[in-house]
Structures are given as structure tokens and as C-alpha cells.
Write a structure and sequence with these properties.
- By secondary structure, the protein is α+β, with helices and mostly antiparallel strands.
- The chain folds into two domains: about 80 residues, no CATH class; about 55 residues.
- The chain is about 50% helix and about 10% strand.
- It has a four-stranded antiparallel β-sheet, covered by helices on one side.
- Keywords: Signal.
Length: about 160
């Protein structure tokens, strides 16, 4: 009875905290036989581990032998079932994935930089035209303030 009350309180606490953080909680029996709750699986494997959906409060047994699940119950791999990918191989695969994502992000940043360069060029042209219009127009109120503003824009966008 005392153990179930403790488990219910732990689940309620995890539910309250989990709403703002992880949506999945891994559970397993610890060495002393008590339930252990964590946002990462024990030893990064899914062997003898259940997952708990914090929102629905449902617990599901993780089946490490299902096709499409990580290899041998290992978390962070997509190798076929039965392959013995070492931790170093898993890390190398993850590093390659991160490098590919970094390269994609750098290419996107270059595109954005080119767009910014074009926008600065257009802003420079507009500022020069506005300055010329203010200087040559005969009916302009507050000419000095406008000239100063357009000159500041030219300094900002044309240099």
C-alpha cells in the first residue's frame, strides 16, 4: 500500500513536471526492486524498459525486437535488428548526420547573406534617390532633418 502511494505520487509529480518538458518517461525496476523513472533509458538500451506517456499516463512495454526499432534495443541508432553496431560506430553515424546538418545550415546562411546584400543595395539606392529629391525639391518642410536622415541611411547601407 505504501509503495503504491509512493508510485502514484511519483507519477503525479512526473506528470506535473513532464507537461513542460519531456513527453516520454522511461521506467524500469531498480536494483532494490523500486520503480525508476527517467527521461533517458537505462544504459541507453530498451531491454526490459517501459515508456510512460506523461500526458495520457499510459505505460507501454518497449519491444526491442520489432522491425524499425533501434538495433538491439540501442537508442540513437537506426541499424537493422541484430546488427552489432558499436558505440563508436553509432557516434560516427551521429557525427556524420550533424556534419550534414551543419553543411545545410551553412548553405542556408549563405543564401540569407546574399539576400541581405541585395536588400542593402536596394536600400542604398533608395536613400541616394531620396536625398537627391529632398535637395532638389523646392517645397520641402524640415529639409535639414531629412537631409541628415538620408545621409545617415547612405552611410548605413552604402558602406
Amino acid at each position: 500500500m505504501k509503495k503504491s502511494v509512493k508510485s502514484i505520487l511519483t507519477i503525479a509529480l512526473m506528470g506535473a513536471i513532464g507537461m513542460a518538458s519531456a513527453s516520454t518517461v522511461f521506467t524500469w525496476k531498480g536494483q532494490s526492486g523500486n520503480a525508476v523513472y527517467s527521461d533517458t533509458p537505462r544504459n541507453l538500451t530498451t531491454h526490459n524498459i517501459s515508456t510512460m506517456n506523461v500526458r495520457s499516463q499510459t505505460v507501454n512495454k518497449v519491444d526491442s525486437g520489432v522491425s524499425g526499432s533501434p538495433a538491439g534495443g540501442q537508442i540513437g541508432t537506426t541499424a537493422p535488428v541484430g546488427s552489432d553496431a558499436s558505440l563508436a560506430d553509432q557516434q560516427a553515424a551521429l557525427n556524420a548526420k550533424v556534419a550534414l546538418e551543419n553543411k545545410r545550415q551553412e548553405e542556408e546562411n549563405k543564401k540569407v547573406e546574399e539576400q541581405n546584400k541585395q536588400m542593402r543595395s536596394q536600400n542604398c539606392t533608395s536613400a541616394k534617390m531620396n536625398l537627391q529629391n529632398v535637395q532638389t525639391s523646392s517645397r520641402v518642410n524640415n529639409r535639414e532633418a531629412l537631409v541628415a536622415g538620408y545621409q545617415a541611411d547612405i552611410q548605413k547601407f552604402c558602406n
